[in-house]
Structure prediction request, 231 residues.
Amino acid sequence: MIRAVLFDLDGTLLGNDMDRFMPAYFDCLQKFVAPHDPSETFLSALLIAVREAIRRPDPRRTVWERFMEAFERETRRSRDFWIPIFERFYGEAFPSLRALTAPRVEARLLVERARARGLRIAVATNPVFPEVAIRQRLEWAGLGDIPFDWVTTMENMHFTKPWPEYYLEVASHLQVAPEACGMIGNDWEQDIEPARKVGMRTFWVCEGEDGWSWRNQGDLGRALQWLEDLR
Prediction:
């Protein structure tokens, strides 16, 4: 019996083309950091640290801890130097990126329906952003007031997508067996394949003719019907 639903954020609950958003994000961050650290190696150090956090999971250390360890090494500066800068960036500059995103009316209907059914609900976004950035994007999606049972962030997760262990970790936090979870996401390799590997039922959010070929794929309106049919 279904007991929980996991929702991807970008491209699913929030209209956000990550191929456009991420270059703008990196550009915005680099410009903000430049007065504090004019080094031209900042962005490469950031990307190396993110890749290490993704590719070298450790169940004893969070994604944030692995990222900061690598980032300190690559920049030769301590987290005491970087954390205040990052905090200011997410408070002052990151909100400008909201213009690249758009809320989806169907997303709120979908989440509220899952809640009304008594299901546990989680925001299962790839935890390569700190909590402050993910909470802001939930606000942009019009979902900031929803009492989610779990929201994945760099600070509270040990695995990232597409590791199947990421989905097992979310299910563990929800205190629900993976076989009793549904996953709704727009990225086949990041959301659908690994969730299926651990036994979750999945809905692939996709557009176009192919999106209407099967019961468990399509737009958010179809996802709502899939949710209604889940037992």
